[in-house]
Amino acid sequence: MFANRKIENIEQEVMEAVSLARKQQPLLNAMVSFMEVDEAISEAKNSNGKMAGLPIVLKDNVLTKGVRTTGSVQILDNYIGAYDATITKKLKDAGAVIIGKSALDGLGMGGTGTNCHTGFVHNPYDLNRMAGGSSVGSAVLVASGAVAFAIGSDTGDSVRKPASFVGIVGVKPTYGRISRYGIIPYASSLDHVGYFTRSVEDAALALEVLAGRDDKDMTSSTREVEDYLANLNGDLRGKKIGILKNVIDAIKKDQTLALFNELIEKCVNAGATVHMINMDQTRLQACLPVYYIIANSEATANHSNLDGVRFGMQEWGDSLEELMTNSRTKGFSFLLRKRFVIGSYSLADENQDLLLRKAQKVRRLLVEDYKTALSDIDVLIAPASGDVAPLLTDTSADQLSARYLIAENHMVLGNFSGYPSMTIPMGKIDGLPIGINITAKPFEEQVMFDIALGMENLTGCKNMTAEVNV
Amino acid sequence: MSFEVIIGIEIHCELKTKTKMFSGAPVSFGNLPNTCVNEIDLGHPGTLPSLNKRAVELAITASELMNCEVDRLIRFDRKNYYYSDLPKGFQITQQFHPIGRGGYVDIDVDGVSKRIGINRLHMEEDTAKQFHHGDVTWIDFNRAGTPLVEIVSEPDIRSGKEAAAFVEKMKSLLEFGDISDVKMEEGSLRCDVNISLRPYGFEGYGTKVEIKNLNSVNNVQRAVEAEIVRQTEIYLKGESVVQSTRRYDETTRKTVLMRKKEGTVDYKYFPEPNIPPVLISDEFYSRVISQLPKTAQQRKDAYINQLGLSDYDASILTSGKDLSDYFDAIVGFGAPSKGTANWLISEVLSVASLRSDKKFADWIQPQHMADLLIMVSEGKISGKQAKEVFLDMINGESPKDIVAKKGMAQVSDEGQLLSWVTEILNNNAQSIEDYKNGKDRALGFLVGQVMKLSKGKANPAMTSELLVQELSKR
Amino acid sequence: MERINKQKVFKLAEQLMLRLSDEEADNIIAEFDTLLKQLDLLNQIDTSNVEEMIYPFEEPTSFFREDIIDQVLSIEDALYNAPVEEEGYFVIPKVVKD
Question: Domain A10-233 has what CATH class?
């Protein structure tokens, strides 16, 4: 916890975090690079900021001036940030001490933590399991106890899914609430800056630091930032909680449903009303292809700047085309090259109507459905995943089953709509954590935090950390 | 057999802004390479575009001057292709919703007016500059991201002369609109011509050839004329024109093949997700409209109707914005308009080549020019003296100082003149006699004597008048 | 939608300045098969008279950046990441500019 706590011995706290992360690194492989902290510590000592002296970690797609920023791809392996991301500045201004950059699935494209340039990242609760992705390193470092706060980014569910798998709080606020300037993108219309904490109070405070208009990001919101922590109220009386029934129906694991139902019952006992919400099943099943097409289309264009000419890894050639082709082929894993080819196919003039534009139209229908679903309730909830974290060796998901399409992909609705959405732990199954997802109306982060706090009080899942035997 | 010539012209024009289209880095004016860039212009990871207000104002101004309808909702798209001068791997442009549409301009060819349609006007960003150096190419990103408007005409142009007149007209509108420097030789205005031939009466279009990188208005005309000859010869031989991009070779005065065009390139355009639609508010729009600069034609009309200048003089004065601005400034300092026009056209323009690429106002201050012309009009110095003073003014000295230093100022003070006249008359009894006897030459001699005595400062007209008056008394 | 062929996959990759092995191209074609099946899910949805949704929030903004110089990189920072640099320029193999 760092909310309402002044860090007395900054040096000690930071060095403990660094030391723990270093000790865990051989087992978890969550860190890409450690940063020099001496200067940041002395600055933090003079800071009155909301995170004064707090050791934190940034996902390695967040730009840091003068510090290596790789996006977890070979082509940026030697890239030194030419500038600070807006959130990097905000965090420094708040007195936070950035101790390092964490691992991610390359360019944020992946949800398993197995597509990182630096190798697999392991779940601190069971080293044989994945911790989800793409913000895997940040999630793992918060869950392992190394740091109490870490930055992630969320394009499909890349903060909220790993939060579920490692038993922490993962927040993706409203699109535009936090500036994206200086975040290596995945898909611009779906990308959100998100973050991890171990408590709802910390999550509320962190948004106060991160949120706000940034003229460098034309999509960032001019709405005033609220005093989320001061206003935080976990009283569930009279709160209207909607349950996304399609997701419940798609989940096949009894223990997940049992945990979920137990929490719902406690919510009702605490004075909340519960409402079953059904969305159009056919449209809901289209979430994944809609996401896949839009995300890959935007991504292929977004990463055309990675060409080996001005920065990053270069493989010289006899012509410009050879130089670019050599650099990009060697610089991107096959998975990324595949995604770019598929994205480019969706963008091709003769295919756009059938693919990209079709997907964008269905996106609108889904967002309209979602808006309707939320119209008479405060939040919409569902388990953040159908099951606990899969084994690292598990590649069995049937990508056409309703179980997969809906139970494992519904959180992307938060990216389509831009609505604020977060995951908090709801309990453990056989010692492995699993989370619940809470989504609110646009810019109603306060409502979301309030209900999350109410639920956190009921589950008692707060400040959870894994025991990592180093 | 003769053919109808179908020509459409695309103009790329750099906007006169301080910063780039989507970044706050400065627009370069011959700066050292890669010193006018920031992370956005270099396409670094994580950067996002931020739209320049002034560029939008200038694009609206250009649209209005070309009678286009302005789309009040600004939207941008991505044009995707890989090239070393394109840092992001895509160009941000307005493919689907250009800011200006459906306009026209009137051109004048051999005294006949013709209307040329403007299909579209859109905003986009410029690319980097590349230089060949031995086995490699050097890239300077200073120009990358510079705001541009692209203006596309309808295929309404029918000859080399019309093409040249159209480009000249666009230059004038963009220059007087304070939108661009329009320096074709430096690339701040670039012109591509699409040209095809078809038999008269034929409805369809012939194969189109694009001529790129024309660097002067004269070359536009010459290139078009050379291309018409080339295509005509091909058709008359019964062969067909190949769809291609060509350039104009000044030494051979022919167009030369650059590359053939095989099919159309798919740029995979899609809406730019990082720039939400931006609404031009009524207030913003009205402000731009209320500040629309006067066109060359409007200035010319005002010179004729309000200042009484001749059509010829007004045309010359509005042939370039710098000259017209200079004229306005001098007249603004109180110089007589006709005298200023005459002086600028007959004296200043003849030596203006000395100023190299300086603006008139930086070469000789308008205040100095006005002072000079006022002295002439008030008779303080003669026209002949004025020319002498003018040449010295090029060094930056004020005409008043020069006149004083050279002791040039004419004496028009009646008392002083009278004392000189009296002195001369007292010493020239013979001339008085001659004058009385009707010898006209005597008066001229006496004027000359007074001028000599006054070291050339006596006002000749007044001296002559005074002499006649005093002679009658004797 | 038609099944994609290998030639097309290679062509797409080439346009993206990417090379693929034969095996990789086959893998992509297999992925396309899954995509086509998922597309069936999309095509069951009637989208006539539906506009594309490009941005999560669609109310137009009215922000323009003032035309004031606010950030320039030093030449050292601009070239810091340059793989090859000469005399202040980025360097690439000779290109014949159109």
Answer: alpha beta
Residues B287-336 have pLDDT tens digits of 999 999 999 999 999 999 999 999 999 999 999 999 999 999 999 999 99
Residue of B nearest to A184 (CA): B46
Domain match, B219 and B303 both:
no
B361 and B430 in a single domain? The answer is no
Judge whether B289 lies within some domain: no
CB pair distance less than 8 Å for C19 and A329: yes
Touching subunits of A (3+ CB pairs, under 8 Å) are B, C
ipTM value: 0.97
What is the crossing angle of helices B160-176 and B321-332, to 10°? 40
* Domain residue ranges of chain A, discontinuous segments joined by +: 10-233
| Lookup: tokens for A431 | 């010692």
Number of domains in chain B: 3
Q: What is the mean pLDDT of chain A?
A: 96
Q: Does residue B245 lie in a domain region?
A: yes
Give, for B90, the enclosing helix (H) or strand (E): strand B90-93
Judge: A345–C65 Cβ closer than 8 Å, yes or no.
Answer: no
Using an 8 Å CB-CB cutoff, list chain C residues near B54: 66-67
Helix H, strand E, coil C: the string for B274-328 is CCCCEECCHHHHHHHHHCCCCCHHHHHHHHHHCCCCCHHHHHHHCCCHHHHHHHH
Do the Cβ atoms of B145 and B22 come closer than 8 Å? yes
Report residues of chain A scoring pLDDT below 50: none
Give residue-wise pLDDT tens across range A227-284. Answer: 999 999 999 999 999 999 999 999 999 999 999 999 999 999 999 999 999 999 999 9
Inter-chain residue contact C98 with B245, CB threshold 8 Å: yes
Contacts of C9 in chain A (CB under 8 A): 341
Q: What pLDDT is attached to residue A397? A: 60
| Domain positions in chain C | 6-43
Residues of chain B scoring pLDDT < 70: 1, 356
Beta partners for residue B91, in sequence order: B79
Tokens 């920023």 correspond to what residue?
Answer: A69
Stretches in chain C below the pLDDT threshold 50: 98
Q: Which domain holds residue B49?
A: 3-279
Active-site residue among A47, A144, A153, A158?
Answer: A158
Q: What is the DSSP string of C16-47?
A: TT----HHHHHHHHHHHHHHHHHHHHHHTS--
Q: Looking at the structure, do residues B398 and B327 belong to the same domain, yes or no?
A: yes
Residue-wise pLDDT for A422-469, tens only, equals 999 999 999 999 999 999 999 999 999 999 999 999 999 999 999 998
* A179 catalytic per annotation: no
Contact (Cβ atoms closer than 8 angstroms) between residue B21 and residue B55 = yes
